[in-house]
């Protein structure tokens, strides 16, 4: 029995204690009387608005920032693993050399931990500089773990991660035995990895043994309950006051009136902190258009010494919101860069139809901000000419920059505050086509939601790269997949795509979006069911053959028209031809898959 209690104690010891901490930056109070305790088995998601003080809290814990008052106690057994924002390696190193020199561990130990992130012999021998961003992050995670920490501090680890690495990280964290604290604005990621939530709000820390979704529900209920209770208290106060007002002067009732006055003085309402301001983003209206917006034909992208993808052909129509998906290093950013003419295409061509005005948002915009400018000065300098001051203030307000904030210098802004500022600047330029490379990085939930909602209602065209699943799910009306030297439109919605990807991570064979509609034909089933499934497949095959014949005819007719009218350019027919071609490819692919299944 005693051993049991002992074990429990061992399992649950305090690692870090934060007591009544106060932290100031100039006049701005970041934390005040902030306290919390972090135990050895906790999996904590750290949430809070941009600029709330989350990164500051981590820096205080690892001793990089001083505090103005209070205490931070780190238990002697605590070994903190901090996922460094900067890269701890020289790019010329091979992965294994770096891991060994950084951690002083034997190569077999390095290999064992690295395997958790699917870094095997080939990757261990490769030079770090040749790895994609996702793989470099895997190397950093491996290095951190080799130092055998018992608590991990991860500050926005999901920024810049490709989905496969993200899913691997999720899987790893779900099986991790130690404690961790993760700052992230990705709700789904936190929901899937953490069981406690630390809310950084109103300059305080509040820890809850609830997963994020449950905590947010609880928070809402709590607020509603407090509001109700205050209403009741107020009602009671009014009743008592009425009695005092009516009978207070009467001698016969004086004693009762005095007692009621006492009761009034004892009534207490619960303090309700003013709710944080709501983010509401209005993208300036653009003229809606129809038909093709961007057409790409047989294009090859890459760099003089390296082709990234070739034979790219597809069309994007006005008003479409296209998510560009695929692992890091596969060429998503290269594709965007080629389309904004940052780099030339190697072969083939693309064109924008008339009246396209493109705005580009990417990570480098954040880095290039002039630190000396204030928020207002920056927005004023970037807005289209003659934008009235109130429009600038309105846009700044949508992104929660008001009053004193407007004079804040860019140099002191948090990651999320900088990202908001750049987005506000871009939207002030009134483009009708937006190319967004990881727009949700750094932004807090509320801002991401508001931005997703605004983009969905935007009448212009949007091409975006994002690993934030909640964001992509809301915004995307179409998907372009960049994978192994190919770029193609993916048929199926965003959820289908994610399911496919997760299956690959778990090592199960890929099941395309289309196959799911087919009857299941798994091996251990009874023969009767197999026959049933077989028939269903054959029926589907016949239906497909008919669809293919019809579509081929349509394509032929259209082609004939082009041959008969070589001098006329008909936008609608061109677009239709493109669609029919894609549809045909898609049908033929399905036909092949079913054929294969039937013959297996
Ligand atoms: N050196 C500094 N001088 C003045 N103000 C600062 C300094 N560093 C940070 N701040 C301010 O302190 C606040 C908290 O910053 P912090 O980086 O901790 O926020 P955060 O919660 O991590 O936000 P985000 O979600 O955007 O990363 C911000 O308003 C930021 O502008
Ligand atoms: Mg931060």
TrEMBL record:
The keyword Coiled coil applies. InterPro entries: AAA+_ATPase, ABC_tran_Xtn, ABC_transporter-like_ATP-bd, ABC_transporter-like_CS, ABCF, P-loop_NTPase. It comes from the Bacteria. It holds the Pfam family ABC_tran. Residues 16-246, 294-509 form the ABC transporter domain. Residues 509-520 have a biased composition (Basic and acidic residues). The keyword Nucleotide-binding applies. Residues 534-597 form a coiled coil. Keywords: ATP-binding, Coiled coil, Nucleotide-binding, Repeat. Residues 509-529 are annotated as: Disordered. One of its GO terms (molecular function) is ATP hydrolysis activity. PROSITE patterns: ABC_TRANSPORTER_1, ABC_TRANSPORTER_2. This is ABC transporter ATP-binding protein. It comes from Uabimicrobium amorphum.
């Amino acid at each position: 029995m005693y051993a049991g209690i002992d074990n429990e104690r061992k399992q649950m010891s305090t690692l870090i204690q934060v007591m009544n901490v106060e932290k100031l930056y100039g006049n701005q109070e970041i934390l005040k009387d902030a306290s919390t305790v972090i135990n050895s088995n906790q999996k904590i998601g750290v949430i809070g608005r941009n600029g709330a003080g989350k990164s500051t809290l981590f820096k205080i814990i690892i001793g990089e920032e001083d505090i103005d008052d209070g205490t931070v106690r780190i238990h002697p057994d605590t070994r903190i693993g901090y996922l460094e924002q900067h890269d701890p390696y020289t790019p010329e190193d091979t992965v294994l050399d770096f891991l060994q020199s950084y951690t002083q561990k034997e190569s077999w130990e390095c290999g064992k931990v690295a395997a958790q992130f699917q870094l095997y012999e080939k990757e261990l021998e490769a030079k770090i500089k040749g790895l994609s961003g996702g793989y470099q992050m895997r190397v950093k995670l491996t290095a951190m773990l080799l130092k055998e920490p018992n608590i991990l501090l991860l500050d926005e680890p999901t920024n810049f991660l490709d989905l496969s690495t993200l899913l691997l990280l999720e899987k790893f964290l779900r099986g991790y035995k130690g404690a961790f604290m993760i700052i992230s604005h990705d709700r789904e990621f936190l929901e899937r990895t953490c069981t406690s939530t630390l809310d950084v709000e109103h300059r305080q820390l509040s820890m809850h043994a609830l997963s994020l979704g449950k905590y947010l529900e609880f928070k809402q209920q709590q607020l509603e309950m407090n509001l109700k209770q205050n209403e009741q208290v107020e009602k009671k106060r009014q009743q008592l006051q009425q009695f005092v007002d009516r009978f207070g002067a009467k001698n016969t009732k004086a004693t009762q009136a005095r007692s009621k006055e006492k009761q009034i003085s004892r009534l207490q309402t619960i303090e309700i902190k003013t709710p944080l301001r709501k983010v509401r983003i209005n993208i300036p209206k653009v003229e809606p258009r129809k038909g093709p917006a961007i057409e790409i034909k047989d294009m090859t992208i890459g760099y003089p010494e390296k082709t990234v993808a070739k034979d790219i052909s597809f069309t994007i129509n006005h008003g479409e919101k296209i998510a560009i998906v695929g692992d890091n290093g596969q060429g998503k950013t290269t594709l965007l860069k080629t389309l904004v003419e940052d780099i030339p295409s190697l072969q083939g061509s693309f064109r924008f139809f008339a009246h396209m005005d493109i705005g580009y948002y990417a990570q480098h915009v954040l880095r290039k901000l002039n630190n000396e400018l204030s928020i207002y000065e920056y927005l004023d300098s970037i807005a289209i000419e003659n934008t009235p001051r109130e429009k600038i203030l309105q846009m700044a307000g949508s992104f929660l920059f008001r009053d004193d904030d407007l004079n804040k210098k860019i140099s002191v802004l948090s990651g999320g505050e900088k990202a908001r500022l750049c987005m506000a600047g871009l939207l002030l330029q009134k483009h009708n086509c937006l190319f967004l490379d990881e727009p949700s990085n750094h932004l807090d939930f509320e801002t991401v939601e508001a931005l997703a909602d605004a983009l969905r209602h935007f009448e212009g065209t949007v091409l975006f790269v994002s690993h934030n699943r909640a964001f992509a799910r809301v915004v995307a009306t179409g998907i372009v997949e960049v994978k192994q030297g190919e770029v193609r439109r993916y048929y199926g919605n965003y959820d289908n795509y994610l399911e496919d990807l997760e299956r690959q991570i778990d090592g199960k064979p890929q099941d395309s979006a289309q196959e799911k509609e087919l009857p299941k034909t798994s091996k251990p089933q009874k023969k009767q069911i197999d026959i049933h499934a077989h028939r269903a497949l054959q029926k589907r095959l016949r239906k497909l053959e008919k669809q293919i014949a019809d579509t081929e005819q349509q394509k032929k007719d259209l082609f004939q028209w082009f041959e008969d009218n070589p001098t006329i350019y008909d936008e609608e027919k061109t677009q239709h031809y493109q669609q029919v071609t894609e549809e045909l490819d898609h049908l033929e692919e399905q036909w092949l898959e079913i054929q294969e299944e039937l013959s297996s």
